[in-house]
């Protein structure tokens, strides 16, 4: 009886999460311009519109890709030295740097967005693509910083001591011991940042300043005329990217460990 | 490879210092600018100039015409920011907690599948989530349609339920109507952070040792007593911590409020946007509002931490 109730509750929770997402995805099949559910006059024409025909969507999808890939790559490259210094030295200064670098992610993004408007405005870069990329880099720096720190902590220092006694320099030890073990954590950090950047709205809404638009910004800007089925194709695309990315992390990395669960006793 | 030479080292160190400096400038200076500009002066018909005046804060708390008249408009916005965020955060944590408890009893593989599932919905943009609930609650194709078609509307009309819903602002004389409403706003906000609640509660709950719970059970404690005396003390800190984090996150919610809340019940994030980029264009005042939002977040975090340390201090 208890088991059945538990199953029912979990099923209900899954349904509660899935249902609105499913509604958005199915709305992409609508034949008309209105979002009906269930879809009326089902067609796949919206997919062609979103990916090929309608220029605003094609362009904003490209922008989304450019922003997400460059900012995620930059975030990982930026996070590496900070995480490494934090692990090697564990000094108060490096802790402070890591804490401050994570601040934009921890505070309400709308405040960071407002600050960035002023910041880029001063530099005359508001509305430039590169400033948008840097904004996302800093906003999501906390993610690779966290995954890399988790990874570095799991490295056995005895291996490093052994390498040192056998005469390996720090560079060699880094290349042969640390780097190979850190690949899954580096990739996870990259992909977490990538997916969040794709889906981020408020900060890029502020800093894009109508100079360009990502898919999320474009959808919000078109809201005045209501939601249309073509936007729902964007939703499906982003969902597919998330599903692919997190399945890959789960397959090649240790997702429970990355999320901070105790995995020592259950495996 | 031999030890690197001295000039090489100093070049590396220089790059390191530059790197840290660049990161800190980008992460910290925007916040400092918001703080500094909140004391600035708005020039009518133009932009604004630096200054040190409390006009913007005075306008926030008592209105521009104080002491002739008092306007609490922005305090009302702040109140709605706090109200929506607090209710949604508590609802999300309260319902996610039993779920995570059950989830961590599953196999490792099942847990991973659930985590992938929640990470996908967690990263799903607020824009899309609002789109989904917008369809579900729209008068022409969503829940109101379901109410109409299944005869639920007629049933509600007959026994006076519709009148009650009208009092709550959830119906028109003809049918139920869910947007704009506080109900739709809080529902969507709760939905927005539900997967976050799961991900936040997962580590602490997965660390609870089942043996302790089972021991209490075999010693004759009822399930209710076990939850109250064994489980709750172990998870109180993460539960309150999760509520606080979700609260801070929800304080900045924008799209949900813009779409689902009645304009008279909008929040600070909407008016911050209006002031900084939107129609009213008053950067110093927008900054002051953003600072108040940050201070609210900080105050709630501090109070929460006090609460937690007071509770655990007794042991």
Automatic annotation (TrEMBL), chain A:
Cellular component, GO annotation: plasma membrane
Record domain ABC transmembrane type-1: where: 61-250
Keywords: Cell inner membrane, Cell membrane, Membrane, Transmembrane, Transmembrane helix, Transport
Membrane topology: Multi-pass membrane protein
Pfam families membership: BPD_transp_1 (PF00528)
Broad class of the protein's primary localization: membrane
Compartment annotation: Cell inner membrane; Cell membrane
Residue intervals passing through the bilayer: 12-29, 65-87, 99-123, 129-152, 232-250
GO biological process, alphabetically ordered: transmembrane transport
InterPro entries, sorted: MetI-like, MetI-like_sf
Keyword Transcription: no
Family, as annotated: Belongs to the binding-protein-dependent transport system permease family.
Name listed for the protein in its UniProt record: Putative spermidine/putrescine transport system permease protein
Organism field: Aliiruegeria haliotis
TrEMBL record, chain B:
UniProt-listed GO biological process terms: transmembrane transport
Keyword Cell division applies: no
InterPro entries for the chain: MetI-like, MetI-like_sf
Membrane topology: Multi-pass membrane protein
Subcellular location: Cell membrane
Domain spans labelled ABC transmembrane type-1: 78-304
Similarity comment: family membership: Belongs to the binding-protein-dependent transport system permease family. CysTW subfamily.
Name assigned to this protein: Putative spermidine/putrescine transport system permease protein
Record organism: Aliiruegeria haliotis
Lineage: Bacteria, Pseudomonadati, Pseudomonadota, Alphaproteobacteria, Rhodobacterales
């Amino acid at each position: 009886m208890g088991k059945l109730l538990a199953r029912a509750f979990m099923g209900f929770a899954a349904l509660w999460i899935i249902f609105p997402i499913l509604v958005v995805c199915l709305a992409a099949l609508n034949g008309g311009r209105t979002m009906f559910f269930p879809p009326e006059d089902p067609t796949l024409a919206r997919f062609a519109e979103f990916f090929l025909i309608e220029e605003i969507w094609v362009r904003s999808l490209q922008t989304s890709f450019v922003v997400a890939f460059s900012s995620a790559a930059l975030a990982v490259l930026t996070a590496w030295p900070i995480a490494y210094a934090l692990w090697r030295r564990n000094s108060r200064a490096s802790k402070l740097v890591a804490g401050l670098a994570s601040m934009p992610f921890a505070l309400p993004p709308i405040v960071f967005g407002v600050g960035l408007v002023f910041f880029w405005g001063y530099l005359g870069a508001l509305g430039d693509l590169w400033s948008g990329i840097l904004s996302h880099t800093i906003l999501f720096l906390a993610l690779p910083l966290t995954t890399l720190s988790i990874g570095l902590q799991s490295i056995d220092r005895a291996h490093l001591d052994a390498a040192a006694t056998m005469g390996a320099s720090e560079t060699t030890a880094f290349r042969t011991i640390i780097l190979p073990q850190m690949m899954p954590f580096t990739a996870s950090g990259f992909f977490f940042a990538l997916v969040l950047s794709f889906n981020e709205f408020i900060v890029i809404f502020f800093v894009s300043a109508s100079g360009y638009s990502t898919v999320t910004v474009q959808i919000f800007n078109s809201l005045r005329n209501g939601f249309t089925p073509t936007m729902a194709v964007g939703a499906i695309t982003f969902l597919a990217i998330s599903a692919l990315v997190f399945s890959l992390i789960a397959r090649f990395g240790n997702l429970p460990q990355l999320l901070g669960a105790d995995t020592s006793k259950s495996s | 490879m031999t030890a690197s030479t001295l000039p090489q080292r100093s070049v590396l160190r220089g790059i390191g210092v530059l790197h840290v400096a660049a990161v800190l400038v980008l992460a910290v200076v925007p916040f400092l600018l918001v703080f500094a500009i909140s004391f600035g002066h708005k020039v009518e018909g133009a932009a604004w100039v630096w200054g040190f005046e409390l006009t913007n804060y005075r306008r926030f708390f008592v209105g521009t015409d104080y002491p002739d008249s008092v306007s609490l408009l922005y305090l009302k916005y702040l109140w709605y920011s706090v109200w929506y965020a607090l209710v949604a955060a508590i609802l999300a944590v309260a319902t996610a907690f039993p779920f995570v408890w059950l989830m961590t009893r599953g196999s490792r593989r099942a847990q991973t599948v659930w985590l992938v599932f929640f990470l996908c919905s967690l990263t799903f943009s607020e824009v899309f989530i609002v789109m989904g609930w917008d369809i579900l609650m729209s008068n022409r194709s969503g829940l109101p349609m379901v109410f109409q078609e299944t005869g639920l509307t007629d049933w509600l009309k007959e026994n006076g339920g519709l009148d009650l819903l009208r009092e709550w602002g959830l119906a028109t004389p003809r049918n139920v109507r869910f947007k704009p409403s506080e109900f739709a706003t809080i529902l969507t906000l709760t939905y927005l952070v539900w997967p976050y609640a799961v991900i936040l509660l997962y580590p602490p709950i997965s660390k609870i040792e089942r043996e302790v719970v089972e021991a209490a059970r075999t010693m004759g404690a009822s399930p209710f007593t076990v939850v109250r005396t064994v489980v709750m003390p172990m998870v109180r800190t993460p539960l309150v911590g999760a509520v606080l984090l979700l609260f801070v996150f929800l304080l900045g919610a924008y799209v949900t409020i813009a779409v689902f809340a009645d304009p008279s019940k909008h929040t600070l994030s909407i008016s911050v946007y209006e002031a900084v980029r939107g129609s009213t264009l008053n950067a110093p005042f927008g900054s002051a509002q953003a600072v108040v939002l940050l201070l609210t977040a900080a105050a709630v975090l501090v109070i929460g931490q006090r609460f937690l340390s007071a509770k655990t201090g007794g042991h």
